[in-house]
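So, does this match?
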Amino acid sequence: MSNYLNNEIAELALSFKALSNPNRLKIFMQLLACCPPGTACSITEAQKFCVSELGKDLDVAPSTLSHHIKELNQAGLLKMQRRGQHIDCWVDPEKVETLHDFFKPLPDCAIPKLSRSTS
């Protein structure tokens, strides 16, 4: 397996790990809601949320919300920008595209066949 493919797999694993937490998944889904289904927002079209707005529907402490935002950002799922005392965040359109491509159906020839042992 090439190093490029190994790096791509590592990045996907980091994304899935970040999204495995229900609160982080809710935050990510809330940010994705700005995009029509099956598309990725461009940076100019993406709806930006202030971090405090993202926590309104979550029953978590502000420090926990901050931790979740940090994890999503470190996984490359979010972009962030400071605006005075506020921090705006939005989904990274390229990462959404990468995740979308990952879940596209593979042609039958690309799916490895699992052999069953008859012991």
